[in-house]
């Protein structure tokens, strides 16, 4: 059973659309017989189908500290039953959240999945894996509070998957790396070992990496449509929404559409975890504010010259640091705007109060 002490009646969001969410009760997520399933992967049964809960008009739910929040896949919600159907009373505080920065002049973030234990960073071996993308997704994963794991797909299409996996492992510090081939089943057991009851795993990676194929292989059935021709002949299928899939063993998987250039939400700690090697070197530079561009006593430059640090790795770190700093500045601008609006409202209310008994209060 999912571990939610003190919140016995919570339901979990399996899919979030603009004005409504689909939810399942905790017992539908507990280990179950692999009965025939609906499209959403929920077990059939009297109450096995996900329930649709219509949201307030703003599409938000009351979160912790009264802050209204956009619900996302993996969230736990408390419901009230009303004559008009179920309403969301509250969002249970998120243990972890995979958050990305969305495009926009001022910063806005979007939670892709909530209450996740493991982030599966999926990357293909054929064509060659993109190390920079793996580093970016690992940073996103560390920032979420969940444990990242790298899954390299299409191992059946390359001559030396283990050698390639070792290269990826060099840039994925403190992270397990699995090479898998779904057609042969090779390497899947290593990933299956993560599927303990109550665990929530989210799958992220570029379009075509094989995320839905992996989810189906782990579920042991077709829960997500995958690439290749669609049955209706209308070209390639690609996942268009995020969805939580309960597995028979009591773990849940969240599939996501391929994310192109996910915006990094600033987090120095996450970057330092992904790039622990570079951060350790930088901490040994003679000057605390070393830019690693030729200063005397620069441990980063020394490691580069000694061939102990790959120039690609340093470039990647710099790029992600710049991006995170940019995002943080935009977040500050947005926060400042919000503060301004808040003060405007407070002073307006004050003036109204000073004008004396205009309207009755309360
Ligand atoms: N040979 C081989 N092909 C694979 C493997 N995994 C996935 N594929 C193929 O790669 C293509 C893309 O797989 P999908 O699972 O749809 O990829 P996805 O990451 O879910 O893509 P989006 O839905 O667009 O985000 C499909 O044609 C799969 O059959 C694998 O391990 N080996
Ligand atoms: Zn330096």
From TrEMBL:
<feature type="region of interest" description="Disordered">
    <location>
        <begin position="31"/>
        <end position="50"/>
    </location>
</feature>
<feature type="domain" description="EngC GTPase">
    <location>
        <begin position="114"/>
        <end position="260"/>
    </location>
</feature>
<dbReference type="Pfam" id="PF03193">
    <property type="entry name" value="RsgA_GTPase"/>
</dbReference>
<dbReference type="GO" id="GO:0005737">
    <property type="term" value="C:cytoplasm"/>
</dbReference>
<comment type="similarity">
    <text>Belongs to the TRAFAC class YlqF/YawG GTPase family. RsgA subfamily.</text>
</comment>
<feature type="binding site">
    <location>
        <begin position="153"/>
        <end position="156"/>
    </location>
    <ligand>
        <name>GTP</name>
    </ligand>
</feature>
<dbReference type="GO" id="GO:0046872">
    <property type="term" value="F:metal ion binding"/>
</dbReference>
<dbReference type="InterPro" id="IPR004881">
    <property type="entry name" value="Ribosome_biogen_GTPase_RsgA"/>
</dbReference>
<feature type="binding site">
    <location>
        <position position="292"/>
    </location>
    <ligand>
        <name>Zn(2+)</name>
    </ligand>
</feature>
<dbReference type="InterPro" id="IPR030378">
    <property type="entry name" value="G_CP_dom"/>
</dbReference>
<dbReference type="GO" id="GO:0019843">
    <property type="term" value="F:rRNA binding"/>
</dbReference>
<feature type="binding site">
    <location>
        <position position="285"/>
    </location>
    <ligand>
        <name>Zn(2+)</name>
    </ligand>
</feature>
<keyword id="KW-0378">Hydrolase</keyword>
<keyword id="KW-0694">RNA-binding</keyword>
<keyword id="KW-0690">Ribosome biogenesis</keyword>
<dbReference type="GO" id="GO:0042274">
    <property type="term" value="P:ribosomal small subunit biogenesis"/>
</dbReference>
<feature type="binding site">
    <location>
        <position position="290"/>
    </location>
    <ligand>
        <name>Zn(2+)</name>
    </ligand>
</feature>
<protein>
    <recommendedName>
        <fullName>Small ribosomal subunit biogenesis GTPase RsgA</fullName>
        <ecNumber>3.6.1.-</ecNumber>
    </recommendedName>
</protein>
<dbReference type="GO" id="GO:0003924">
    <property type="term" value="F:GTPase activity"/>
</dbReference>
<feature type="domain" description="CP-type G">
    <location>
        <begin position="105"/>
        <end position="262"/>
    </location>
</feature>
<keyword id="KW-0699">rRNA-binding</keyword>
<keyword id="KW-0547">Nucleotide-binding</keyword>
<feature type="binding site">
    <location>
        <position position="298"/>
    </location>
    <ligand>
        <name>Zn(2+)</name>
    </ligand>
</feature>
<keyword id="KW-0963">Cytoplasm</keyword>
<dbReference type="InterPro" id="IPR027417">
    <property type="entry name" value="P-loop_NTPase"/>
</dbReference>
<keyword id="KW-0862">Zinc</keyword>
<keyword id="KW-0479">Metal-binding</keyword>
<dbReference type="GO" id="GO:0005525">
    <property type="term" value="F:GTP binding"/>
</dbReference>
<comment type="subunit">
    <text>Monomer. Associates with 30S ribosomal subunit, binds 16S rRNA.</text>
</comment>
<feature type="binding site">
    <location>
        <begin position="205"/>
        <end position="213"/>
    </location>
    <ligand>
        <name>GTP</name>
    </ligand>
</feature>
<comment type="function">
    <text>One of several proteins that assist in the late maturation steps of the functional core of the 30S ribosomal subunit. Helps release RbfA from mature subunits. May play a role in the assembly of ribosomal proteins into the subunit. Circularly permuted GTPase that catalyzes slow GTP hydrolysis, GTPase activity is stimulated by the 30S ribosomal subunit.</text>
</comment>
<dbReference type="InterPro" id="IPR010914">
    <property type="entry name" value="RsgA_GTPase_dom"/>
</dbReference>
<keyword id="KW-0342">GTP-binding</keyword>
């Amino acid at each position: 059973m999912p571990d939610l002490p003190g919140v016995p009646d919570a339901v979990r969001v399996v899919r979030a659309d603009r004005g409504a969410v689909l939810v399942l009760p905790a017992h539908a997520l507990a280990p179950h017989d692999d009965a025939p399933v609906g499209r959403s992967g929920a077990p059939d049964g009297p109450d096995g189908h996900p329930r649709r809960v219509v949201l307030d008009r703003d599409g938000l739910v009351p979160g912790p500290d009264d802050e209204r929040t956009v619900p996302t896949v993996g969230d736990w919600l408390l419901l009230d039953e009303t004559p008009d159907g179920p309403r969301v009373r509250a969002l249970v505080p998120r243990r972890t959240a995979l958050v990305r920065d969305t495009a926009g002049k001022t910063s806005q973030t979007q939670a892709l999945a909530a209450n996740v234990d493991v982030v599966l960073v999926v990357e293909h071996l054929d064509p060659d894996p993109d190390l920079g993308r793996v580093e970016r997704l690992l940073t996103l994963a560390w920032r979420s509070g969940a444990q990242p794991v790298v899954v390299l797909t299409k191992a059946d299409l390359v001559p030396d998957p283990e050698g390639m996996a070792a290269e990826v492992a060099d840039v994925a510090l403190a992270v397990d790396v699995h090479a898998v081939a779904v057609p042969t089943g090779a390497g899947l057991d290593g990933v299956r070992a993560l599927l303990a009851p109550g665990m929530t795993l989210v799958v992220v990676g570029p379009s075509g990496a094989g995320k839905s194929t992996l989810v189906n292989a782990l579920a042991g059935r077709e829960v997500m449509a995958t690439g290749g021709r669609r049955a209706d002949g209308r070209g390639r299928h690609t996942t268009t929404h995020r969805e939580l899939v309960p597995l028979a063993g009591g773990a849940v998987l969240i599939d996501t559409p391929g994310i192109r250039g996910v915006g990094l939400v600033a987090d120095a700690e996450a970057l330092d975890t992904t790039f622990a090697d570079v951060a350790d070197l930088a901490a040994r530079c003679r000057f605390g504010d070393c830019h690693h561009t030729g200063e005397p006593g620069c441990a980063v430059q020394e490691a580069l010259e000694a061939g102990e640090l790959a120039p690609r790795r340093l470039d990647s770190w710099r790029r992600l640091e710049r991006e995170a700093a940019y995002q943080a500045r935009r977040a500050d601008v947005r926060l400042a705007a919000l503060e301004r609006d808040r003060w405007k409202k407070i002073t307006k209310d004050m003036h109204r109060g000073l004008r004396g008994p205009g309207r009755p209060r309360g």
